[in-house]
Amino acid sequence: MASRTPRGTAYESFGSGERTIALVHGLGLNRHSWQWQVPALAAKHRVITYDLHGHGDSSVPPRTPSLSLFAEQLAELLDHLGIARASVFGFSLGGMIARRFAMDHGGRLDALGILHSAHARDTAAHEAIQARVVQAAREGPAATVEAALQRWFTDGFRASHPQMMDEVRRWILANRKDIYAPIYQVLVNGVTELVAPKPPITAPTLVMTGEEDHGNSPAMSRAIAAEIAGSELVILPGLRHMALAEAPELFNAKLLHFLQRVQGG
């Protein structure tokens, strides 16, 4: 059962420890998309999951959606919980929000995870994702959900895990058309403000994606890592976008190894 902040952010807290890890989900998803990571991370750390504005059980965005708005939401959540500093791991859109948080609230960050997240797109990729936004605005999330599942999971896994496909499909279909499309637009436009981040991101950083995650490609992750001094780059072989659900043991092992390295440092 989620708690709520005075400003309407639904959140849950798991585990305990000196380090707090805040997990930021992707577009159209919700805090439950971290269900495969929470047990592993909460064994030694305090873990916070929450719903972005306009998702799950949280309130609608209080103004036009932007990366800065979502970074502000995270800062307000940490304030509400009395947490001065946290490690922030963001998936997809969440990885963009995590970078914006690092730029806007860097003093509150002790480690950063940028997971399956976009960097600058070429013209073809930009036009393809913009077309999906237009389609979603016209027809709602149902118009793009099946294509998303194909991009997000490998073919064999998708065929052998119909219950998981149904769960993720329900998450996406639960989004309101009038809110989903403007937030989707943030996924399109937000990358430009993250290229060559200013101020520079200085927190220990893990950059990770799947070998077959074409929308958040290895080339994009290499470009992100190249702009963050000392960052660690991981490419997960044979996996697409939702590696956190398709291969949680491998995914979690990479997160835990990074955290152990940071802790040791």
Protein topology:
Elements: E1 3-4, E2 10-14, E3 20-24, H1 38-42, E4 46-50, H2 67-81, E5 86-91, H3 93-104, E6 109-115, H4 123-139, H5 145-152, H6 155-160, H7 162-173, H8 177-189, E7 205-210, H9 218-226, E8 232-236, H10 243-246, H11 248-264
Parallel strand pairs: 3-4, 3-5, 5-6, 6-7, 7-8
Antiparallel strand pairs: 1-2, 2-4
Helix pairs in contact: 2-3, 4-8
Task: Give a structural overview.
Strands 1-2-4-3-5-6-7-8 form an 8-stranded mixed β-sheet, with helices on both faces. It has helices spanning 38-42, 67-81, 93-104, 123-139, 145-152, 155-160, 162-173, 177-189, 218-226, 243-246, 248-264; strands at 3-4, 10-14, 20-24, 46-50, 86-91, 109-115, 205-210, 232-236. Helix 2 (67-81) crosses helix 3 and helix 4 packs antiparallel against helix 8. It is built from 11 helices and 8 strands. The chain has one domain (3-119, 192-264): 3-Layer(aba) Sandwich (Rossmann fold). The protein is globular, with a radius of gyration of 17 Å. The chain is α/β, with parallel strands linked by helices. The mean pLDDT is 97. Residues 23-253 form the AB hydrolase-1 domain. Pfam families: Abhydrolase_6 (PF12697).
Q: Unreliable stretches, pLDDT < 50, 5 or more residues?
A: none
Beta percentage is 15-25%
Percent helix: 40-55%
Mass-distribution shape: globular
> What order do the helices and strands follow?
EEEHEHEHEHHHHHEHEHH
Q: What name does the CATH topology carry?
A: Rossmann fold
CATH hierarchy, class: Alpha Beta
